[in-house]
Amino acid sequence: MSLAPRMKVLYDLMVPMRDGTALATDVYLPGDGAFPALLQRVPYGRSNPAILNGALDVSRAVRRGYAVVVQDCRGRFGSEGVFTPFAHEAEDGADTIRWITAQDWCAGEVGMFGRSYSGLLQWHTAGEGPPGLAAIAPMFSGADVLHGWLAPQGVLEWGFAVLWSIRHLAPDLLARDGQPLHGLLDMIDDIDEVLFERPGDDRLDRMRERLPFLDDWLDPRRRDDVLAAHAPDPARIDVPVLLIAGWFDLFLSGCLDSYARLGRETARELVIGPWAHGGTGPGVFPERDFGVRASADAARLTDRQLDWFDRWLREEDEPPRPAPAVTYFQTGADRWRHDETWPPRQASALDLYLVPGALEDRPPEATGTVRLRYDEADPVPTVGGPTFLPGLEIAANAGPRDQSRLLGRDDVCRFVTEPLDRELDVAGGVVLTVCARPPLPGMSFCARLVEVSASGRAMLLTEAAARLPGAGGPRLVRLDLGALAHRFAAHSRIGVFLAATGHPRYRRWVTEDVPEAPRTGEIEIVCGDERAPSRLVLPVPKEAE
Fold first, then answer.
1. What DSSP character marks residue 272?
2. Which of 81, 16, 9, 7 is nearest to 43 (CA)?
3. What stretches of 7-139 show up as alpha helix (H) in DSSP?
4. CA 326, CA 320: separation in Å to the nearest integer?
5. φ, ψ for residue 369 (rounded to 5)?
6. pLDDT for 225-249, tens place per residue?
7. HSE of 422 in the Cβ direction (CA atoms, 13 Å)?
8. 450-463 exposure pattern, b = at least 16 Cβ within 10 A, e = fewer
């Protein structure tokens, strides 16, 4: 393929939607002629270089012979209309693709790319089935807003909802409405204080008044109804899907759920790297470096996407050779691996039973209990993990972090195995079932899976929260701790840390169902009940047996 001698850019085009609203759009062309097109729709400003090139290098796409279209979402930056997250994106995406295919610089086939919100929009647009859409490459997002973004397993992603709204959405929304920003700037500067919800601090309440969608998300009585409609069924999406995910991205479970729900005949590829939501970056975190092979450049993410689009948008005499269906980074071994399925074929499930202070490979002979204390005024802090918190852009508060700093607290329960006599590979979804007696209905609890080294460092692998049904008990709850592909080192130990709180990732309230609930108390964890065993289930892939 010959490379274009120069790039031609059409700035500030206003593309009409079906209701007459015009969306600001830039088009990057390889030159004169008709080309397959790639569309990225963004809520953060189409001219921002970090956004423009966040998912793939646009200039390289143009050099590969693609017309690249970048558009501000409705009600954002240069576009007309009112922005309500998720509300108009499916129709606006479909209308934009119809406009692209009618242009003389478009050869007729369109692909979509982008990460986070731009990834979500691809699922929603594909659900509309617009003619001309030939393939998508969502990064860091599944299709389901409610269960994959804001409230997986029924627990609100508090830190994400507040930080995203205040720091990433509010400035442009309030400025375009002519509202004063000085109060907003104070909130951004003091975001940790706003997240903590100290008594007498009314700044968040004032922001909820100015951002009605945030008020909807934070109200459990409205959240489900408002967001449930924004969930296209992946089983009905028939365009090819290249999905890119990160082990430390808070949307990982939503990504893998959408991938698994695609129709059996839908072409698909999956890439999972050791990345947090702030960016693919180098795979380096404050307390863990996964090595030079972990970076997005080493994974060739731009080339991987462009090869994917070459396969589906071009009519080549020799189509590009398909990549492996699944490419994932195995932490612990710190290497890329390939498979035809995700999760890999499972040889066995390793059951580890919770007993007071330990994890054992056989059910305990007697029933025991552990009391999990909580105090909403002094919540257990979030320490790394799949988060969306201040410092997001450099993953300062995300990823594998040492949890041993939590061990001095009386509101963290620790369950740890004896040292492993050999390496152990785990790949797939990790499930924790807990039998508990909660004193209040709808209580949440947080679980962390860690690897405890011989030196005593308890490095976080994955973390999640779930809601305990009802009150009293005993109640058995299943918590999907998330997926991982990890090699536990010989002589290390597998650990589970339980807490009723995990702030500021999760709200410091232990229940949303009882507004006047006592702010301190205990949850009783039951170990050894044969009818409802508390246990951790780890998937062991076939080749590792």
1. E
2. 81
3. 49-52, 58-63, 89-101, 117-128
4. 17
5. -130, 150
6. 888 877 899 999 999 999 999 999 9
7. 3
8. bbbeeeebbbbbbb
Neighbours of 398 (CB within 10 A): 28
Structure tokens at 184: 């907003």
In order, the DSSP letters of 206-223 are HHHHH-HHHHHHH-HHHH
Taken as a whole, the chain contains a residue count of 545
Q: Report how far residue 372's alpha carbon sits from residue 485's, in angstroms, rounded to the nearest whole number.
A: 29
Whether omega for the bond prior to residue 363 falls within 30 degrees of 0, making it cis, is: no
Task: List, in order, residues 6 or more apart from 20 with CB less than 8 Å away.
Answer: none
Inter-residue contact 197 to 189 (CB < 8 Å): no
Residue 140 contacts residue 249 (beta carbons within 8 Å): yes
The amino acid at residue 22 is A
- Nearest one of 186, 190, 189, 184 to 214, comparing CA atoms: 184
Task: Give the residue ranges of DSSP H helices in 235-318.
Answer: 252-261, 296-299, 301-313
Radius of gyration of the chain (CA): 24
Write out pLDDT tens, residues 491-523.
999 999 999 999 999 999 889 888 777 889 999
Distances in Å between the Cα of 419 and the Cα atoms of 245, 422, 432, 495 are: 31, 9, 20, 11
Contacts of 229 (CB under 8 A, 6+ apart): none
Q: Are 440 and 510 in contact (CB under 8 A)?
A: yes
Which of 131-145, 279-293, 297-311, 372-386 bottoms out in mean pLDDT, i.e. has the lowest?
A: 279-293
Question: Phi and psi at residue 275, in whole multiples of 5°?
Answer: -125, 150
Q: In whole angstroms, what is the distance from residue 146 CA to residue 248 CA?
A: 19
Query: Helix, strand or coil for residue 311?
Result: helix
**Helices within 146-300 (DSSP H only):** 158-163, 170-176, 182-189, 191-196, 203-210, 212-218, 220-227, 252-261, 296-299
Q: Token digits for 469? A: 């049904």
Separation of alpha carbons 209 and 343, rounded Å: 44
* Residues in a beta bridge with 425: 487
Query: Which backbone phi and psi does 251 adopt, to 5 degrees?
Result: -100, 10
Dihedral over Cα of 100, 104, 105, 111: its sign = positive
Q: Which two three-digit tokens encode residue 482?
A: 């998330």
Contact (CB, 8 A) for 105 and 71:
no
User: What residue has token string 């963290």?
Assistant: 412
Kindly report, residue by residue over 369-407, the tens digit of the pLDDT.
999 999 999 999 999 999 999 888 778 889 999 999 999
Angstrom distance (rounded) from CA 207 to CA 438: 33
